[in-house]
Automatic annotation (TrEMBL):
Signal peptide coordinates: none
InterPro entries xref list: 2AA_helical, ARM-like, ARM-type_fold, HEAT_type_2, PP2A_Regulatory_Subunit_A
Segments annotated as HEAT repeats: 28-66, 67-105, 106-144, 233-253
Molecular-function annotations in GO: protein phosphatase regulator activity
The protein, known as: Phosphatase 2A Regulatory Subunit A helical domain-containing protein
Cellular component GO terms, alphabetical: cytosol; nucleus; protein phosphatase type 2A complex
Gene source species: Pinguiococcus pyrenoidosus
Keywords: Repeat
Residue ranges of every copy of the Phosphatase 2A Regulatory Subunit A helical domain listed in the record: 25-196
Length: 253
């Protein structure tokens, strides 16, 4: 029965922890992983929710060899809730396999979901990025994330645009800590372009994003230099404060 198989998956962590031998770990893991093609969404959802928590117990090698391919398969599952479950539970895998494998495997799979038809999945991608950012070096993380932000800032769903706005400061900070100002330059150029759009939604997004960046730059050691604020941010905000659409003007005030 699907309920029994789902319960077995949920208890897999306890079972693996109770078996100390690596051979036992591998046997149990392979038995559980066979359920990746289970016809029951309930079972695959249990896999998406619980599998990542096995990583610390089975170690890096087994995680990379056996667990990671199944997680990547589940990220492409036809059911929205299964894909979201994997996105929301990847922390233990990130901590176990390290930066290199994470960047080579998980990040491309996650970024591929930015075009998912379900808006909840796209929102899940943006929500997962701060956790991924903590594990990836700036040279690997920043270029790909900037491409993602290009798409997400114009997503038709406001919640996704809002989540992307909240994440922009972190992208800039990652790039800055890596010794580069490229992300800040890209973000400000993109927002300036959006502030000049013919339709009001990109202008509203630009106003909200610039306000957010101002808040992250107000204190000493902020993400943007004061010279950058004066030359690039403030002039754009002044222009948006005169926008014909009230919501845009309110966002600036």
């Amino acid at each position: 029965e699907p309920e029994v198989r789902a319960a077995a998956v949920a208890n897999a962590v306890k079972i693996v922890q109770a078996v100390s031998e690596s051979v036992g770990h591998e046997m149990i893991l392979r038995t559980v992983l066979q359920l990746v093609d289970d016809a029951s969404t309930h079972v695959r959802l249990a896999l998406g929710t619980c599998l990542s928590s096995l990583a610390p117990a089975i170690g890096k090698d087994l995680t990379a060899r056996e667990l990671l391919p199944v997680l990547l398969t589940l990220l492409r599952d036809e059911e929205t809730d299964v894909r979201l479950a994997v996105l929301n539970s990847m922390d233990p895998v990130q901590e176990t396999i390290g930066v290199k494998l994470l960047g080579e495997n998980i990040l491309p799979a996650v970024l591929s979901l930015t075009t998912d038809a379900k808006w909840r999945v796209r929102l899940g991608v943006v929500s997962a990025l701060p956790k991924l950012a903590a594990h990836l070096a700036s040279e690997k993380f920043t270029p790909e994330i900037l491409d993602l932000c290009t798409k997400m800032l114009v997503d038709p769903v406001f919640n996704i645009r809002r989540a992307t706005i909240d994440f922009l400061a972190e992208v800039i900070d990652i790039s800055r800590r890596g010794g580069s100002a490229d992300a800040a330059s890209w973000v400000l150029q993109r927002l300036k372009s959006m502030s000049e759009a013919a339709t009001y939604e990109p202008r509203l997004t630009a106003a909200l994003a610039l306000e957010s960046l101002c808040k992250h730059s107000a204190a000493e050691g902020g993400i943007l230099e004061m010279s950058t604020m004066r030359s690039q941010v403030i002039p754009t905000l002044v222009k948006l404060s005169r926008d014909p659409i009230p919501n845009v003007r309110i966002a600036v005030s």
